[in-house]
Amino acid sequence: MNWYIQNGKESDVVLSTRVRLSRNLKGIPFKTRCTKEELKKVFDTLKEVTPLLGYNLKFIAMEDIDNLTKQTLVEKHIISPDFAKTKVPYTAIIINDEENICIMVNEEDHIKLQVFTSGLDVDNLLNLAIEIDEKLEKLVDYSYHEKYGYLTACPTNVGTGLKISALVHIPGLEMTGNLNKMLNIVNNLGMNVRGVYGEGSKAEGDIYQIANNQTLGITEKEIAKNLNLISQKIIEQERIARKYLAKNSLKLEDKIYRDYGILVNARRLSEEETIDLLSSVKLGTDLGIIKELTDKKVAELILYTKPANMQKRIGKELSVIEQEISRCEIIKQIVKED
Asked: How far is CA 226 from CA 33, 165, 190, in A?
């Protein structure tokens, strides 16, 4: 099973964790100032070294990936929305079959090395990212400054070039009116709170992305430690909120079962309505209120009700109305599966 339909540590609150390292090749300008020939040089260099990295990584040019498949990768949070739409030549991904490793080539930087896992597992994920990074650094020359560290196109990534983020599902804090208070605390502790697809995107179904905003003058271990501490604080507060809501169990169970009833019996559902219903249903499953679903089924429902992954599963492109009808059919299929 791929990581995005598994459940990991603390996955009642933390859906997934990503570690990302931004790197550039020495002697070549940042992507925004690159000529076509320089972009090609980055592209060719990374294509050449891919077989030497191991991990069953494959080099795939973005121009060889159809738009629907690109969008499935966006929905899985494996590539950025802007990268999926880019018209810049000589872009690529280096990815394995499990899709827990993906290096974007000529995105914002020459190299965006990313590793993913379900649940909260910052330390093991960081070790994997550093292991791949060290292998890559032996094969190519990085742009590095003795004083400032790794040089990147965006000033906020200079230094370690490390961004660690966690996708958190916090409906309890929303329902008890404590969400803004918690998000303000996170911001004050040197973390960014963003939408599910990063900077400029919106939260979906009480899901937010928490990420460090400092990469300079701080070590990788310190960044990991800070994100772990803040994630644990969010987990603790969310579970307290859920415990409080469970005291009025009839009201909570009524809401969750009403949402579950709509989800499994509706004949047409928009993406937005499905996201809100699934947030409630995931909460009900995590609290043991809904016995009909497993964690794995909830993860599959979240993924396969998104437009691109739904169309990929069905095997054809659909109009918006066809998507709304097919979404309900897929929900019924997943719920009934053994």
From this structure: 34, 11, 9
